[in-house]
Each structure stands twice: as structure tokens, then as C-alpha cells.
Amino acid sequence: MKLKVHNSIRLAATAALLLCAVSASAQSVYLPQGAPVAPWGGYPVAESVPFQPTMEPKPPIEGDIWTEPPAPMFESPVLGPQQYYDPAFTPVDSPGLPTSDPYGVETDSAAGGKSLLPPGTRDGVFQKINLQAAWLPRFESDSLGFTDLKANVVLGLPLFTRETPLVITPQYQIHYTDGPTMVDVPPRLHDAQIEFRHFRRLNDCWIFEGAITPGYYADDYSFDAGDAFRLSGRAMMIYESSPEWKWILGAAYVNAAGYAVLPIAGAAYDVGDFKAELVFPRPRLAWRLASSASPGLDEQWVYMMGEFSGGRWAVERTNGTRDVLSYSDWRIVLGYERKIVGGLSRTFEVGYVFNRELEYESTVGDIEIDDTLMVRMGLTY
User: Fold this and answer.
1) Between the CA of residue 114 and those of 70, 77, 96, 106, 204, what are the distances in Å?
2) Cα–Cα distance between 373 and 370 in angstroms, integer?
3) Distance in angstroms (rounded) separating the CA atoms of residues 87 and 85
4) Residue 15, H or E segment
């Protein structure tokens, strides 16, 4: 009888030990309540489990319900390609193309087709800030030099839907002039403007893009002059014949020296690593470098482009009379751009400036200015 009691005690102790061991093993696999969440959205797994999740998403499997998550969003639609390469003078801020970035969000717009919102479009009103500085040296006494500083903030509001936004861009730019000796030019010229831009996909093939820009353009003493206020704008239609090809036709009202309206016409070709925007008045060829750290997130580009630039300002002459000064030029530009999603993007450009014209409204005939060079740098966040 005593032996049976001892055996029962031994069996009970053994069972208790086994139960504790099983309990402890279960605690090592299942986490207690309040366990920390892993930074990639899962939960920490005990070391005793042989398989550990990684931070890399699994590749899509045909027939699986899992799909690739969309790329991080970064720029505003207003900041389409042209916003990176604005000319140094605001009245004709290069009519650009609202093309879809190859790494853009693959959502469909209300009218069908790929979304026009570029990658990184922020959810709030604020989209980006741009800072730019340009220098055009004066090589001859009868020539004209410029040092330009520009800043703008891009804001986006949904116009009925987020896919068809109203993009608002207040901008200020100051031009410090150098020369020429044969005619009086104010030492400082100012541009204070606000652009209202809208674009929308009309159907699978057609896209509309338009902008209107009221602003004041004057020297230090002439903001109250009637000629200081000026309206400029552009309108164009884009036909998307394939994911690679787009065809553009429209017009821009620029009101610069020797020009009032410029046609916008041409085609754009985009295959990811190479872009050809053969569109007058701003043709551009761009290549993405193989050294780009992460295509779609951190890219390096080199490009070559042509652009028209100019302005028109209300000014006060040295004799005290009011007048209107106009300037225009054409440029061939080589550039480098580092585009960083969610970070500080930057551009560096050098160019040749030619066909330069300067005129006063009160004077008959244009004043031709010698050719010069251009150095331009920009930061975008």
C-alpha cells in the first residue's frame, strides 16, 4: 500500500513537471498581451520558432490575393517635370506636360487610365517648396547681366476629387540687373505672382491642362502703376496614344519682348530610363543614370533642353517718367538632377543664352544684347 502511495506521488509530480514544461513552451511561442509591434507592421516572434519574417515584401504570386503595395508618394501634380526646370524668369514658367511618372501610383482616375498624380503627392494642402538661384554674367559693357533669386510654395486642393486638383503656387522672384551702359535699366525687378493650375483626364486617351497666373511685375517704385499688373496663362490638350507616347497641342500667353502668344506643340516619349519631350517651346531629353540608388525613390538624371524666357515690368526711368521694360531670350541648357522621394532634391544647370532682346514701350525698336552664359541651381522639398 505504501509503495502504491509513493508511486502515485511520483506520477503526480512527474505530471506536474510535464505540465509546467508544456506551459513554459507555450509561453515562448505566444506573446503576452501588450507585446510591442514590429516596425514593419508584424509582431515579434520568439527565437525558438525557426522561421522569422523579414522586412522585404514577398514577390507577387499569380493567383494570390496579395498585391504589391503602392510606392511611397512624393510630389504634387503641379510639380510635374516642368517644375524642376522652370526658366529663370517667371512670366513664361515653361509650359510643361502633366505626364505620369513611370513610378507613379497605379490608381485609376475617375475618367479611366493611369493616375496623373506623380509619386509622393502629399495628402494635405502643402505639396512642396522650391528655391532657385540663377546667374547670367555681363561680359561686355553694352551687355546685360542678371542675378535671380526665386521661391515658391506649391499647394494642392481637390477640385471635386483628389485626382483632379486645383494646384495653387504663390511665387516671388527678384532680378538684380547689371548694365547695360547704353540704356537705363532699374537695378532690381520684382515678380510677385500666383498660379492657378488645373488638369484632368477626360477619358482613357485625352488629358486637359490649363493655368492662369495673375501677378505684379515692377521695379522698386512702380507697383502702383497700371502696367504692373499682368495676366498670363496657358492651355493644352494631351492625347495619350500609348503608355510611352503623348501628343500635345496648345498655346501660352507670355506677353514678353517681341512675343505675346507662343504655340505649344509636339510629342513626349517616356520609357522610364529615357524621356524625350519634343515639345515647343521647351524641348527636353533626359537620361536616368545607372548609379541611381533606388529607381522611383532616389534617382539621378542628366538632361539637355531648350527654353524660352522673358519678362515685362512697369518701371520708372532715370528722368522720372513711367515706362514698361520687356526682355526675352532663348537658352540651351545642360543639367543634372538628384530626385529624392521625401527628401531634398536638387538641380544644377549650365546654359548658353542667345537671341536676347530688350525694349522700352516708349522707344521704337529693340535693343539687341550680347549672348551670355547661365548657371542655375535649385532645391526642392
Assistant:
1) 13, 13, 18, 6, 8
2) 10
3) 6
4) helix 2-29
Dist. CA 367–CA 342, nearest whole Å? 45
Pair 283, 308: CB distance under 8 Å: no
Q: What is the pLDDT of residues 77-134, one digit of tens each?
A: 333 433 322 333 333 333 333 333 322 233 345 565 677 877 677 888 999 999 999 9
The secondary structure element, H or E, covering residue 19 is helix 2-29
List Cα–Cα distances, 173 to 126, 331, 333, 341, 365, in angstroms: 20, 19, 20, 26, 28
CA distance 315 to 120: 41
Q: Which residue type occupies 273?
A: D
In the chain, which ranges are E strands?
Answer: 126-136, 145-159, 161-178, 188-201, 206-218, 229-240, 245-256, 259-270, 274-280, 284-288, 298-316, 322-340, 345-360, 367-369, 372-380
- Contact in structure between 90 and 191 (CB atoms under 8 Å): yes
Strands 367-369 and 206-218: unpaired
Q: Answer for the pair 121, 156: CB distance below 8 angstroms, yes or no.
A: yes
Secondary structure (H, E, C), 170-188: EEEEEEEEECCCCCCCCCE
- pLDDT-above-70 percentage for the chain: 69
CB 116 within 8 A of CB 163: yes
Residue 263 vs residues 102, 236, 249, 279, 357: alpha-carbon distances, Å: 27, 10, 8, 10, 20
Residue 45 burial (CB count, 10 A):
14
Residue pair 276/247 in contact by the 8 Å Cβ criterion: no
pTM: 0.70
